[in-house]
Each structure stands twice: as structure tokens, then as C-alpha cells.
Amino acid sequence: MSKNQELESIIGPSVKIKGDFSSHGDIQIEGALDGSLSTSGDIKVGKDAKIQANVTANNIFISGTIQGTIKATTAILSNTARIVGDIETKNITIEDGALFNGKCSMGEAGGKANEKTTESSAPDQETEKNK
Known about the structure:
Blueprint: E1 7-11, E2 16-23, E3 26-29, E4 32-39, E5 42-45, E6 50-62, E7 65-67, E8 70-77, E9 82-84, E10 87-94, E11 99-101, E12 104-106, H1 111-130
Parallel strand pairs: 1-3, 2-4, 3-5, 4-6, 5-6, 6-7, 6-8, 7-9, 8-10, 9-11, 10-12
């Protein structure tokens, strides 16, 4: 969690939320959420948490399961994380043992900057092969 903010909300292990959940503070999730989740703070997803939602946060620390798109400045996937969906982030850490099925876009402009670089370098490679 961020040093400047304290934990504002905890979704306990027996709690199941259906719908949209938003906050300006840090959130810790140990239960289940089906809908959308957003905060300008940090999110910590516990090992047994199950989330089916698009998630937006400053930083996200994932030990549980998320099915949906994740947008965060920093995303950390622990060895117990299970992600099915795309991640848009500036920084990502994926520990050995984590499961991530999706696309990752990094940087200020997300995947678009990477796509332009790939497209512009591909013709050069073909030209070199043809020479």
C-alpha cells in the first residue's frame, strides 16, 4: 500500500459484492467482487480473492484471481496470482508461478507505442533478409 494513504476499505473473505465499487483510498480485497473496481489509491488482492471486474488503481498487488482488464501505474503479480485479461501499466513484476493469460501494454501510450515500433522495424528486417 502507498505510504501516504492508509487502508480505507477491506472486503473480507466472506463478503461478496456485485456491482461497481469505487474509492479514493487504498483497498484490500479478500472476498469476491463481480462488477467494476476503481480507486486513485492502491489495491491489494488477497490469495483467496476472486474478482470478475475491470480494475483501475494507482498500484495493484495481486495474490488472488482477477478476470478482467487491469489498469495501474504498477502491477505486481505474486506467485499465487491468476490473471485472465489484459494489463495496462508502466511497471510490472510477475513472480515465478503466477498465471497471466492476456496482453500487457506498457509505457505512457500503452501498447500503441510498441505497435508502431514493431511495425516500423518489420520492413527493415525484411529488407535485410532480401539483400
